[in-house]
Amino acid sequence: MEPEEFQVAVKWWLGMDTSPQQRCPHCHDHQLDSLGHHAITCKGGGDAVIRHNALRDVFAQFCHRARLGGQLEVGYGSGGDVSNSRPADFLVPNWTLGKPAAFDLTVVSPLNSNTLIEAGTTSGSAAGKAEVRKHNANDPKCRELGWVCIPLAVESYGCWGEEAHSSFSRLAARLALQLQCSKSKATTTIYQRLNLTLVRCNARAMLSRARLLHDPGLRLDLGIRGVWQPQVEALFDVRVIDTDAPSHCHRAPNAILESSSQEKKRMYKKAVEDRRGTFTPFVLSVDGLLHKEASHFIKHMATALSSKWDKAYSITSSYVRSRLAFAGVRAVSLCLRGSRTIWRSGLGFDDGAPLASFME
């Protein structure tokens, strides 16, 4: 945990001011409160999704280390259900009595108006109500698929529901067997990793809003979550350079691209890292020459597409580079000649199926 995140987390636990009392810069509908309640429950800005996915991934890692296997995000379109229901954030086969377990994770705040009074007298009441809601929503589809629905509900301050405690105990027994350690140590490790992830994500949600209010002017070309680090937003800024311009005639093309990349980093890198993101300048020449960081991103993306589409890396790499090259040619043509017709992409696919015809 970064020092600034730790400071915000401690203030939040002690009930001190953590957020400026201004309108939320993400949802624009509610006022931020000093205790950080809105910041950790707001659906805008993607912080709630990041927190959910981070907790899900930690739980999945423990299941894999315990040799339980499993799949992420299962259930969409299964059975006769045509809705967007997805009852399994993580599906573990052969969990109990030969049946798979559909673990569905949810984070709730005990400070919500519908749980505040009971939460003040009964520990874990908000998590208990969340478990009931998950059962009502997921049990019919899980019964149809032959799964066992197990909600993993946790309150924003770290109190887990009863079904989560039972599941973690069973997971710890399997984990201890695989790692050759005591069950108590495995149990402690599970709770520590999960709760540290929860606190870190809550702190980042509060920090992201405070930073946006402090510096609202950061604007970049593209943001993608999870490119270089899981659940961390990667921000990109594109620059196209004419390496044949008179001002560059005495410099090597690679040196020109490198200086442009360093200039972008001086402008944006610190501001992006202050928001706990990563910054990558995407610099290329009008002739299609890529800077080394842009080339590295293309290779990374081609590798991911190769795995997703089940195609050879050489095919996906050629496809990505060809699309980028044609985009560059069109952009240069527009600058030189303008456009007389509306251009539409003739490919327009996202599953990799027509790649064979593309490569012919």
Q: What would your notes on this structure say?
A:
The protein has 360 residues and is of the alpha/beta class. It is 50% helix and 14% strand. It is built from 11 helices and 7 strands. It has helices at 3-14, 37-41, 47-65, 116-119, 125-145, 162-179, 183-214, 253-274, 292-309, 313-337, 355-359; strands at residues 71-74, 88-96, 99-108, 148-155, 222-225, 233-241, 278-285. The strands form 2 sheets. The chain has a 4-stranded mixed β-sheet. The chain has a 3-stranded mixed β-sheet with strand order 5-6-7. Helix 1 packs across helix 7 (183-214) and helix 9 packs across helix 10. The radius of gyration is 25 Å and the shape is globular. The termini are far apart.
Features:
globular; alpha/beta; 360 residues; 4-stranded mixed sheet; 11 helices
Number of helices: 11
Report the principal-axis shape.
globular
Rg value: 25 Å
Q: What is the residue-mean pLDDT, rounded to a whole number?
A: 83
Topology of this protein?
Layout: H1 3-14, H2 37-41, H3 47-65, E1 71-74, E2 88-96, E3 99-108, H4 116-119, H5 125-145, E4 148-155, H6 162-179, H7 183-214, E5 222-225, E6 233-241, H8 253-274, E7 278-285, H9 292-309, H10 313-337, H11 355-359
Parallel strand pairs: 3-4, 6-7
Antiparallel strand pairs: 1-2, 2-3, 5-6
